[in-house]
Amino acid sequence: MTPTLRPHARLAGPRSSGKLRRVMGATALCVAGVALAVNVHADTVPGKDKSFMIKAAEAGNAEVAASKVALEKSTNPAVKDFAQKMIEQHTQVGDQLKQLASTKDVSLPSEPTVAQRAKIAVLDKLSGATFDKRYASMIGVTAHKDAVKLFQKASTSAQDPDVKNFAVKTLPGLQEHLQMATELKSKVDASRQ
After folding, report:
1. Every domain of the chain and the residues it spans
2. Does the pLDDT at position 76 exceed 70?
3. From the CA atom positions of the chain, what is the Rg in Å?
């Protein structure tokens, strides 16, 4: 009876075949463990939490983009001051969200949605008091009402504790932005430029 040799045993020799099998077995376990860890890590964020993160990024991107337009187009110091604060604060929150998303394997958009970009394009065509009023109403009040609603929901219903904590921590700032926007809207609506 002729012994059958495995291909790796013929190459390595009969004495090292056991060692080679152990190394190959350990390697296979490591590869399987890495694959399992990647799959577990990728599935850690429930779909609704991922959706919240994407919508939050889009909302922040829209605030920043529209506020940059306001800095260029408005001559009203109150509008410019509000726009500068929105750029700074939404950029900071956006950076925190990006950091969170990177730990959760979530890809975030770097731009506003198509609908948000269309609204910003409309703003870009306006000037003077008309621009100020539309910016305060559309980006200041309406966009912040939507953001507050989005973050309130996530602060109570997010399943991932880190996502929930981000929403809870960010919500008061958005509520403050809404209050500031409401006051700005009152000022620009009352002005006669």
Report:
1. 13-40, 45-190
2. yes
3. 27
* Contact status, residue 132 vs residue 77, Cβ threshold 8 Å: no
Question: Which residues have CB under 8 Å from 83's CB, separation 6+?
Answer: 67, 68, 70, 71, 74, 135
Reduced 3-state DSSP string for 162-179: HHHHHHHHHHHHHHHHHH
**Tokens found for residue 158:** 């997010």
Torsion of CA 63, 69, 71, 75, to 10 degrees: -120
Q: At what angle do helices 77-103 and 47-73 cross, to 10 degrees?
A: 150
- Is the pLDDT assigned to residue 34 strictly greater than 80? no
Return d(Cα 149, Cα 53) in angstroms, integer. 14
- How far apart are the C-alpha atoms of 42 and 64, rounded to whole Å? 29
AA identity, residue 76: N
Per-residue pLDDT, 19:
58
* CA pair distance 100, 163, nearest whole angstrom: 8
Helix (H, G, I), strand (E, B) or coil at 81: helix
Q: Look at residues 147, 166, 173 and name the one whose alpha carbon lies nearest to residue 102.
A: 166
For 45-190, CATH gives: 1.20.1260.10
The number of angstroms, rounded, from the C-alpha of 59 to the middle of its chain's C-alpha atoms is: 9
Distance CA 82, CA 85 (A): 5
Asked if 160 and 49 count as a contact pair (C-beta separation under 8 A), the reply is yes
For 40-68, how does the pLDDT look when each residue is reduced to its tens digit (9 = 90+)? 444 479 999 999 999 999 999 999 999 99
